[in-house]
Amino acid sequence: MQFLASIESTLPILFIIALGYGLRKKRWFADSFGGNLSRLILNIALPAGIFVSILKYLDRDKLFSLSDGLLYFALVTLLAYLIAFLLVKLLNVRRGRRGVFINVIANANTIFIGLPLNVALFGEGSLPYFLVCYLVNTLSTWTIGAWLIANDDPTLDPERRQGGFDWKKLITPPITGTLSAFVFLLADIPLPAFINSTLDYVGELVTPLALLYVGIVLADAGLKNMHIDKDVAGALIGRFIVVPTLMIGLITFGGGFLGALPSVEAQTLIVQSAVPALAVLPILAHAANGDVEYATNVVTISTLLFIIVIPIVNSLLLV
């Protein structure tokens, strides 16, 4: 059952990537289309999608009642960053790849893959627990994660690159959408139905367009160039082995001082810790003049491996 659910959740994603690949190969998309698509996603569709999703799936009572799960997922995310930084040094990951490498390990594709998978495996009742993962992952991605990729730009002047934290880089459309949603949520400000519907429609563009973009970049790079080198292998080991192991260990041994979790919540946190890399990483790498081919490579391979990884994780949960 878990195996079929993981396949059903993953195949549409792979098919849309394949569609983008095929249409680009047939020259339906101009050379400038990929760049235009990335700007549309990052500046318009993604902020709208984040804003609507937070208001749709969260309310103030749910937000304050999920503190234990929030603590677990936040702690594992911080540990994942630490391990990712160590692996960057150990593997000598080159500039232009480092930000993507760290993001693959620390941040997961919770909204595009994790949400449908969680509902398929554990039902609608698991949505409040899923939102813990979504909240931490969204804040992590569009603060620390996005900043790391932007600061990894190999074209930046070395002195500027080594400077302090550039707070202006946090004022991105996705994080603005996130913060705005929390203002509306906590202040209990009603959103007019027509605005909500408009933002919902625009936000729904994110998943297919981001996956089409991955296919376009993959077509430009060439399938024959998709391979596993040490940087790809290190990122995949971190995403699929290290982070789920951290989560399982923390839930198993941390109940005494962090608080025990309900079974479905624990299972949700573990599954969400094992979903593949963010589909928007190639877009972020492109915006920062990074290694887009590497980002596309690791996103595509992690999505393919996901079909195998999730049934294994779910089998362990049943032991």
Automatic annotation (TrEMBL):
Main location: membrane
Keywords assigned by UniProt, alphabetized: Cell membrane, Membrane, Transmembrane, Transmembrane helix, Transport
Topology with respect to the bilayer: Multi-pass membrane protein
Residues that span the membrane, as ranges: 6-24, 36-58, 70-88, 100-123, 129-150, 170-195, 201-223, 235-257, 269-287, 294-313
InterPro entries in the record: Mem_transp_PIN-like, Na+/solute_symporter_sf
Superkingdom classification of source: Bacteria
Intracellular or extracellular location(s): Cell membrane
Gene Ontology CC: one annotated term: plasma membrane
GO biological process, one term: transmembrane transport
Family: Belongs to the auxin efflux carrier (TC 2.A.69) family.
Name recorded for this polypeptide: Malate permease
UniProt organism field: Chelonobacter oris
Taxonomic classification: Bacteria, Pseudomonadati, Pseudomonadota, Gammaproteobacteria, Pasteurellales
